[in-house]
Design goal:
This protein is of the alpha/beta class and 450 residues long. The chain has three domains: 4-39; 67-270, 3-Layer(aba) Sandwich (Rossmann fold); 276-449, Ribosomal Protein S5, domain 2 (2-Layer Sandwich). The protein is built from eleven helices and 21 strands. The chain has helices at 72-77, 98-112, 124-134, 149-159, 184-201, 220-224, 273-278, 325-338, 364-376, 402-411, 444-448, and strands at residues 4-10, 16-17, 33-39, 87-92, 115-119, 141-144, 163-167, 205-210, 229-234, 241-249, 257-263, 266-269, 288-295, 298-310, 318-321, 346-352, 384-386, 389-390, 396-397, 416-420, 434-438. It has a nine-stranded mixed sheet, with helices on both faces. The chain has a four-stranded mixed sheet with strand order 13-14-16-15. The protein has a three-stranded antiparallel sheet with strand order 2-1-3, with no helix packed on it. Strand 1 (4-10) and strand 2 form a beta hairpin. Helix 8 packs across helix 9 (364-376). It starts with a strand and ends with a helix. Bound molecules: thymidine-5'-diphosphate and magnesium ion (MG).
Length: 450
């Protein structure tokens, strides 16, 4: 009989130690080590291999084999559809809509082949109720309420599904190790066995993973290297918009995002996010500006708002929602020093409307414009969009893909774009669009107000 070994595993990062420690030396979290046991002899995790080495030129590529899920935004985030045998992890906060998204996806897939949705958190009846709201009617969609991995494998062997969903990886467990469900060892072992199943049988498998308080998928490092694709489903729970973002993708770009809107009857795909994000924009109001941001290869127009008001306390407040806090502090300093707008002693708030997060430097110039507009209490011309990176001396630097941004702005009826002089090279303005290149952020003030 195999010897049983006891060890301690950090439930945050998967670090293992032969003795208990108060603080994990790997991720520095306190009190995260828990006792776990394993058979000294682990099941081998070898992938079924085709045998002898093959020439790369003789291996047939499977680019044409991608399966479209029927949800365009999901296919986009996956890099153009599902790859046979791939293992996909969908992470996100509880209640963000992961189960809803996957039920809608398998509803489409259940018409292409046999789909098995393993619900380890809810009963089949609960899923059915949800399915009724979503209009689920696929011919070959099977539900299974099961938490034991051995049972799931047995059912998969019987049913031979073409698509598999495990909701969620944290609630299933295997008998081959003794640790509690949800512990790092269990999550890793179950995911490992599911990987062999997915690759061996060629079944594309979705795993749902919950996020821990610090924003990482429980057992994140142990799962992320194992799976082929990691998609994050994120959004502000108080807004209906949800963004599906690829964090890792072995079969495509990680820059792609899918945009959804949560409605009464489930998630609706948003093919034109710009229109949605600009729908409630107040025109002719100080402190509001439209920026053509880029999410992956996709330009999205969003509204950026700033509010500058004199502070009643000694230390003024600085709050940034949707953009980086440090980046905002830097831009405020540039406004102070290089553009000579006195913002010291002012409370400053910056917000990106619609709960979107903008992490690229191309929004610098628009942030400066919004701050100046609010401070001077003058509205920015409504038909103008602004983008560009701003350096520490106030110089405006070129950014990537200016043509995509300009085109999207023109499509939505904007007629003027203020952008870095450096991005103007070889850029043909679309019909009806006037391009204004600038070299220094101080030129902005003369241009944006009418
Ligand atoms: P759910 O998919 O259960 O989240 P997760 O699996 O990520 O925990 O989504 C639950 C939320 O979605 C819940 O707060 C209600 C909302 N929702 C709708 O607004 N409309 C719908 O049709 C459905 C099914 C859910
Ligand atoms: Mg769920």
């Amino acid at each position: 009989m195999a010897r049983v070994k006891t060890f301690y595993t950090c439930q945050q990062c998967g670090f293992q130690s032969p003795k208990w420690l108060g603080k994990c030396p790997d991720c520095n979290q306190w009190n995260t080590l828990a006792e776990e046991q394993s058979q000294a002899q682990q099941n081998s995790r070898a992938l079924p291999s085709p045998g002898k080495p093959q020439k790369i030129s003789e291996i047939t590529s499977s680019a044409e084999d991608r399966i479209l899920c029927g949800l365009g935004e999901l296919d986009r985030a996956l890099g153009g559809g599902l790859v046979p045998g791939s293992l996909i992890l969908i992470g996100g906060d509880p209640g963000i809509g992961k189960s809803t998204l996957l039920l809608q996806a398998v509803n489409q897939l259940g018409n292409i082949g046999t789909a098995l949705y393993v619900t380890a958190e809810e009963s089949t009846r609960q899923v059915k109720l949800r399915g009724e709201r979503l209009g689920t009617n696929a011919k070959n969609l099977y539900l299974l309420a099961e938490t034991s991995l051995e049972q799931i494998r047995k059912r998969v062997a019987e049913l031979k599904p073409d698509f598999l969903v495990i909701d969620s990886i944290q609630t299933i467990f295997t008998n081959s190790i003794e640790s509690a469900p949800g512990s790092v060892s269990q999550v890793r072992e179950c995911a490992g066995q599911l990987m062999i199943l997915a690759k061996g049988e060629g079944i594309p498998t979705f795993l749902v993973g919950h996020v821990t308080k610090d924003g990482s998928i429980a057992g994140p490092r142990v799962l992320e290297h194992l799976v082929d694709t990691v998609l994050y489903f994120e959004g502000d729970p108080s807004h209906p918009y949800r963004i599906l973002r690829a964090v890792k993708n072995r079969f495509g770009s990680t820059n792609e995002i899918g945009v959804f809107e949560m409605q009464e009857a489930g998630l609706r795909e948003v093919a034109n996010p710009s229109e949605l994000f600009l729908a409630e924009r107040p025109e002719k109001t100080a402190g509001s500006v439209v920026v053509p941001a880029l999410e992956g290869t996709r330009p999205i127009l969003v509204e950026l708002q700033a509010l500058v008001s004199s502070s009643s306390f000694g230390t003024p407040q600085r709050t940034a929602i949707g953009i980086d806090h440090k980046r905002m502090a830097l831009l405020i300093a540039i406004l102070d020093k290089k553009i000579e707008l006195q913002l010291a002693g002012q409370d400053i708030f910056v917000n990106v409307a619609g709960g979107v997060r903008l992490d690229e430097p191309a929004v610098d110039l628009a942030t400066i414009a919004a701050l100046a507009s609010s401070h001077l209490n003058r509205a920015i011309e409504a038909q103008t969009v602004i983008f560009g990176e701003v350096g520490l001396t106030g110089e405006v630097r070129a950014v990537s893909q200016p043509e995509l941004r300009v085109k999207e702005a023109a499509r939505l009826g904007f007629n003027r774009c203020i952008l870095p002089q450096g991005s103007l090279k070889n850029l043909k303005p679309p019909a009806g669009m006037k391009l204004v290149g600038i070299r220094h952020a101080s030129e902005l003030i003369d241009l944006i107000f009418n």
